[in-house]
Design goal:
It is a single chain. By secondary structure, this protein is mainly alpha-helical. The chain has a domain at 12-73. Helices cover 51% and strands 0% of the residues. The protein is built from three helices and no strands. It has helices spanning 12-25, 29-43, 58-73. The chain is elongated.
Length: 89
């Protein structure tokens, strides 16, 4: 079977993290991408759920930015509180 080269650009930290994870799994990054490609080809879909994290929604980002601006302007104040210990069941 003929081989072909695929170049993928990604953040350096992400690459290092993926390399570490693959090493822990006992596979190479190339093997991980081949597994992904075979599964996509076989199932004709992305083999996991792809969704948007609601934390990064426009509405939440606006809310967070307003809170930051309120603290910076003195309108709001951050107050320390004691941590509450929760026992595991």
């Amino acid at each position: 079977m003929a081989q072909t080269l695929v170049n993928i650009r990604m953040d350096e930290k992400l690459k290092k993290s993926m390399e570490t994870t693959c090493q822990e799994l006992g596979i190479t990054v190339t093997s991980a991408f081949i597994i992904f490609a075979k599964k996509v080809s076989r199932e004709k879909r992305i083999p996991f759920e792809v969704s948007i994290d609601p934390f990064y929604s426009d509405l939440n980002i606006e809310r967070l930015q307003k809170a930051v601006n309120d603290v910076k302007s003195g309108k709001s104040k951050l107050i320390e509180h004691e941590l509450i210990e929760v026992e595991d069941d």
